């Protein structure tokens, strides 16, 4: 639950970062959002991997039968919420990749007056 909550906070934070378009370079904003989306997907992966570890609790055994154990559901099935969580992992990975690509393209579109010089040219 902790990692899924952190993941959702990162997603909301990346939406709030859209306000940075008023203050920062678009390429920088895309890269900030990309890193936040990538961290969100990592947290969601951890949450989805840890979630089945709790299936051996007494409450789950009472509902799903005594054959229930860690990573074994017994008489129960995986429903839509867990599948949507896995889809959200793929979505966050695709969005972070897209944001990195857009950020790099935006940096190349800047006029030379606004580009940051590398240390090799100084």
TrEMBL record:
Membrane-spanning parts: 6-25, 80-102
UniProt cross-references to PANTHER family, sorted A to Z: LHFPL TETRASPAN SUBFAMILY MEMBER 5 PROTEIN (PTHR12489:SF18), LIPOMA HMGIC FUSION PARTNER-LIKE PROTEIN (PTHR12489)
Listed Pfam families: L_HMGIC_fpl
Cited InterPro entries: LHFPL
Keywords per UniProt: Membrane, Transmembrane, Transmembrane helix
Recorded topology in the membrane: Multi-pass membrane protein
Organism: Synaphobranchus kaupii
Domain of life, per lineage: Eukaryota
Gene3D superfamilies, A to Z: 1.20.140.150
Record protein name field: Uncharacterized protein
Major subcellular site: membrane
Subcellular location: Membrane
GO CC annotations on file: plasma membrane
Swiss-Prot/TrEMBL GO biological process terms: detection of mechanical stimulus involved in sensory perception; sensory perception of sound
């Amino acid at each position: 639950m902790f990692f899924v909550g952190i993941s959702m906070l990162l997603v909301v934070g990346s939406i709030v970062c859209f306000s940075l378009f008023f203050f920062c370079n678009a390429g920088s904003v895309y890269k900030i959002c990309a890193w936040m989306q990538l961290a969100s997907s990592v947290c969601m992966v951890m949450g989805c991997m840890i979630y089945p570890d709790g299936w051996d609790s007494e409450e789950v055994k009472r509902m799903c039968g005594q054959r229930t154990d860690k990573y074994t559901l017994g008489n129960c099935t995986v429903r839509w919420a867990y599948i949507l969580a896995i889809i959200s992992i793929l979505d966050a990975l695709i969005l972070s990749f897209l944001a990195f690509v857009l950020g790099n393209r935006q940096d190349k579109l800047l006029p030379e007056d606004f580009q940051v010089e590398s240390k090799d040219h100084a």
